[in-house]
Write a structure and sequence with these properties.
Belongs to the class-II aminoacyl-tRNA synthetase family. By secondary structure, the protein is an alpha+beta fold. The chain has 13 helices and 16 strands. 4-amino-1,4-dioxobutan-2-aminium adenosine-5'-monophosphate binds near residues 168, 208, 233, 390 and 431. The site of 4-amino-1,4-dioxobutan-2-aminium adenosine-5'-monophosphate has 23 residues, from β11, β15, β16 and α13.
Length: about 475
């Protein structure tokens, strides 16, 4: 008999088809002479209902073994369902229980559990409707990202996890060197003697693959990264993770306009893709998590994003009829409340803010003629705030060297990066999309810890 996934059976299955399904039991209902079990294999939100008749050999023993959470294999024949809520069901001919789940201790029961509680059982929470839907949508977003770039001839490049440079210059680095500290002799004042270290210099987990992506763009024109990045920001918020995934395209012969155009087309493409591939999951989010999810998705797909400069954004915020917690004035970075005000209240759609003050942005952003602002762009999303950060890069060697020094970095540490400006430099631009913030935006999930299977946050790396 053919082994089939439940999503496909629910879509295409016809009465009289014989098949086998394998999955985990969501619920069991015992009635007179038979029992219903709902089986889920992760392929869809909906379960397949299997009917087990008491004339099955060992009926009593099998039914006793089957509880919520048990793993089963059911072979049988599809029949049209008499009951409400499903078109077809599986009439069981054989049932094999792989592993029982003791109802006394199995933490997932039929009732709705809070996300806080589910975070304490991260190894089991993927078996719930909400997390099933989140991780299917997360997967669809990944597929959309690759498809978008591959269709446009971008090369997927793999940038290192271990690096010696702090791309963002924010000092939020996890040290790798400490892994083998016990082999590293220390000098008298407890300074680490890096000459003895594995890499013979301080190394860190990468905060961004951008600098290496720039290297690759200077040979392949258009490239992208999609990989994990790490930040030791001690911000215990619903928008920050210590380990998150970032997508970073980098384009040679491209300016900030081209960068913004790509970013807008990119977000629209992903939303379209997910609406098409995961309609049931998106409907579920709209019903159960946030009733603006579908309207937001439509809005993204159909409307142009707003574009304005940082200077104009500050003017609007200064005029705003809204009490902000943090001050607003030219030169200060936008806080998430300001970002959300612009996207959520004022424009009611994503907003691209450009040309931020140089002193609050990274060293690699291209300096404008005013010498005060840089060719930066952040995309701000309703409910999330910053979802994308990008810029046109500084391609002029002398200006870049000045900026490196001004930000307290040593040009000799970045000799290879500066070389790109020595040999065949071109205007180029790129951006970074926070992948989990995208999944949050897409699903309406309130906390970023609930859109990644194994969240890493301060005080938390359990599973
Ligand atoms: O704005 P960021 O710091 O930009 C960069 O790293 C650039 N090198 C990107 C580039 O131009 N290639 O980070 C990019 C995005 C942010 O807009 C945000 O969505 C996400 O990464 N992000 C985080 N997501 C979750 N947890 C954190 N701690 C994050 N920090 C940044
Ligand atoms: Mg940023």
């Amino acid at each position: 008999m053919v082994n089939r996934r439940i999503a496909e059976i629910l879509r295409n299955g016809q009465p009289d088809e014989s098949l086998v399904v394998q999955g985990w039991v969501r619920t069991k209902r015992e009635l007179k002479g038979f029992a219903f079990i709902e089986v889920n294999d992760g392929s869809s939100l909906a379960n397949l209902q299997a009917v087990i008749n008491q004339d099955l050999p060992d009926y009593e023993a099998i039914i006793k073994q089957i509880n919520t959470g048990a793993s089963v294999e059911v072979a049988g024949v599809l029949v049209a369902s008499q009951g409400k809520g499903q078109r077809i069901e599986l009439q069981a001919e054989t049932v094999k229980v792989y592993g029982e789940a003791d109802p006394e201790t199995y933490p997932l029961q039929k009732k709705r559990h809070s996300f806080e509680f589910l975070r304490t059982i991260g190894h089991l929470r993927s078996r719930t409707n909400s997390f099933g839907a989140v991780f299917r949508v997360r997967n669809a977003c990944s597929a959309a990202i690759h498809q978008f770039f591959q269709e446009r001839g971008f090369l997927w490049v793999h940038t290192p996890i271990i690096t010696a440079s702090d791309c963002e210059g924010a000092g939020e680095l996890f040290s790798v060197t400490s892994l083998n500290l016990k082999n590293v002799p220390r000098t008298e004042n407890q300074e680490i003697d890096y000459s003895q270290d594995f890499f013979a210099k301080p190394t860190y987990l990468t905060v961004s693959g951008q600098l290496e992506a720039e290297v690759m763009a200077m040979a392949f024109s258009n490239v992208y990264t999609f990989g994990p990045t790490f930040r030791a920001e001690n911000s215990n918020t619903s928008r920050h993770l210590a380990e998150f995934w970032m997508v970073e395209p980098e384009m040679a012969f491209c300016d900030l306009e081209g960068d913004m155009d790509l970013a807008e087309a990119f977000l629209k493409y992903i939303f379209n893709f997910v609406l098409e591939k995961c309609p049931e999951d998106m409907e579920f989010f709209n019903q159960r998590i946030d009733d603006t999810v579908l309207a937001t998705a439509e809005n993204i797909v159909n409307n142009q994003f707003e574009r304005l400069t940082y200077t104009d954004a500050i003017k609007l915020l200064e005029k705003a009829d809204f009490k902000f917690e943090y001050p607003v004035s030219w030169g200060l970075d936008l806080q998430s409340e300001h970002e959300r005000y612009l996207a959520e209240q004022l424009f009611k759609k994503p907003v691209i803010v450009t040309d931020y003050p140089a002193q609050i942005k990274a060293f690699y952003m291209r300096l404008n003629d005013d010498e005060k602002t840089v060719r930066a762009m952040d995309i701000l999303a309703p409910k999330i705030g910053e979802i994308i950060g990008g810029s046109q890069r500084e391609e002029r060697l002398d200006v870049l060297e000045r900026r490196v020094v001004a930000q307290g970095m040593k040009p000799e540490d970045l000799w290879w990066y500066l070389d790109l400006r020595r040999y065949g430099t071109v205007p180029h631009a790129g951006f970074g999309l926070g992948f989990e913030r995208l999944v949050q935006f897409m699903t309406g999930m309130g906390n970023i810890r609930d859109v990644i299977p194994f969240p890493r946050t301060p005080q938390n790396a359990e599973f």
